[in-house]
Amino acid sequence: MELSSTHLRYLYAIYEIFRTSPEIRSSIIASRMEVSRPSVAKMLGVLIDKGLIEKEKYGKIHITEKGLIIAREFDRRVCVLTDQLKNAGLGLTDGELHKAVCILASVINEKSRVGSAADGLPTGA
What we know:
Layout: H1 5-20, H2 26-33, H3 37-49, E1 53-55, E2 61-63, H4 65-86, H5 94-112
Helix pairs in contact: 1-2, 1-4, 1-5, 2-3, 4-5
């Protein structure tokens, strides 16, 4: 499955919200990613089409099994990169480091296909 760096960053933001809150809504995603709600709505449509999330009409967003597999694999990559860069003396706050690592990990994905772990799962999984 082809996932752009943007697809992964949105999926990962949804996953991070999912880990800490039962409520995943477009407004929360927009706030977390510092993007507009229309941008979130457009990307949610793409992620739904790829079988990574499901959305109740005017309601909550749910990650599918396929989405969880990809998000967890991406999370492992983020953790490894964070550990490697934490002591690099970059002078970044934890929040800045996390944001930078997410961007770096998503760009690396375009070379190594993080989404391959979920290849073969049905779209609605």
